[in-house]
Amino acid sequence: MITYDMQERGKSSKYEYLYQCIREDIRAGRLVASERLPSKRVLAHHLSVSISTVEQAYNLLVSEGYLSVRPGSGFFVCTRRSNDIHESQRRSEPVPTQLPKRYAINFKENHCAMRLFPAEIWSHLMRRTLTERTPELYQTVPYNGLLSLRRAIASYLYEFRGISTSPDNIVIGAGTEYLYSKLLQLFGPKSVIAIGESGSRKLVDLSHSMSIAWCYVPIDDEGLRIDRLSQSPANIVHVSPANHFPTGIVMSESRRKQLLEWLHGIARRYVIEDDYDSELRYSGRALPPLVTQDDTGGVVYLNTFSKNAHPFNSHFIYGSANSVNGPVSCTTKLLFMLCLKL
C-alpha cells in the first residue's frame, strides 16, 4: 500500500500533494508500468482523506497520462514516456561538454580582443544610467531605435565617414541577420541579390529561407567584377568596399565608379553597403563610402557596433526614405542604447 504523510504538504491542497507524490513515484520508477493502484475508497481510508481528494488526484494523473482507467478493474500506471525522467536522474547523468578550440589567431570569428574592451568604463555608464533614472529607460522603444542614439550615430557618421543624414533615416537592430531579414522583406520575393563569391554563407542561407534568389559574382584584386554583375539577373548587390569578407580586398576607386554606374543604369536597383569594420585600419584613411557618392537613394548603408563596442551585437542601417521604409522594429535592448549614446 502506497503511503504518504499528508501533514508534510505545506501550503498545497491535499489532492495536489497526493497527485505530486504519486507522480513522483511513477517518474522515479517506484510505481512501475501496469501496476494497479489502490481503489479510491481504500486509499482514502488509508490516508485519512476524503474520497473526493483521491478522485481529484487520480483524475489529474489520468489527464496527464500517468494513469489509465480500466472499467471494472481500477487505475493502473501507464508505460513511462521517454521524456518522463526523474529530475534527480537528470542531474546525476553526466552532461557531455565540448570545450571550444583555442587558436593562436582566429580568422573565423572576426572579433576584437576582449582584453581591449573598456569594461570599467562600460560598467560606469550602466550604473550612471540606472542611478540617474533616465525617463527614457521606462518608455517604449521607438520602432527604429532610441532617438538620442540615432542622433549620436548621425553625428558619428558625419564626423568619421562623411555621411550627412537625418536620424529619421537610421534604423537600429540586434544583429546583421535581423536587419537583413527586414531588408529582404522590403525588397520583396521577386528580387535577385548578388554577392561576391566566397562571401558570407549566412546571408545566402537567410535569403533562401525567405525564398529570395541569390547569385555569386566573381571578385578579383580590385573587388567585385562589375562586368559579371551586369550579366547577372541581380537587381540588388551586397558589397563591403572597405574590406571584403573574408579576403580583405579593398574595392578600387575605378571599380566603385563602375558599381555606381550599374546602380544608376536601371530603375529599382539597390546596393547594400556593408561597412562593418571600416574604422579599423593599420594605416591611412578609408575611401569614402559609396553612400556619400550616390544622390539617388539607391545605397543602403549597414554598419555595426560589434567591432568597436564588442561584445555587443548591435547594428544599424541608413538609407533614404525610398530605400528604407517599411515594417521594421528595433530589437536592441533599451539599457544598451542609453549607455551607448553616452
Question: Which structural traits does this protein have?
Answer:
two-stranded antiparallel sheet, 342 residues, Arc Repressor Mutant, subunit A, 13% strand, alpha/beta, elongated, Aspartate Aminotransferase, domain 2
In which order are the strands of the major sheet placed? 3-11-10-9-8-4-5
**Whole-number total of structural domains:** 2
- N-to-C order of helices and strands: HHHEEHHHEHEHEEEHEHEEEH
Strand content: 5-15%
Judged by helices, strands and strand pairing, the structural class is alpha/beta
Structure description:
The structure is a single chain. With 342 residues, the protein is an alpha/beta fold. It folds into 2 domains: 6-91, Winged helix-like DNA-binding domain superfamily/Winged helix DNA-binding domain (Arc Repressor Mutant, subunit A, Orthogonal Bundle); 114-340, Type I PLP-dependent aspartate aminotransferase-like (Major domain) (Aspartate Aminotransferase, domain 2). 34% of the residues lie in helices and 13% in strands. The chain has 11 helices and 11 strands. It has helices at residues 14-28, 40-47, 51-63, 87-92, 119-131, 147-161, 176-187, 201-209, 226-231, 253-265, 334-340; strands spanning 67-70, 74-77, 170-173, 192-196, 213-217, 219-220, 223-224, 236-239, 270-274, 299-304, 315-318. A hairpin with a 2-residue loop joins β6 (219-220) and β7. α7 (176-187) crosses α8 (201-209). The longest helix is centred in the first third of the chain and has 15 residues, at 14-28. Mean pLDDT is 79; it is low at 82-92 and 321-332.
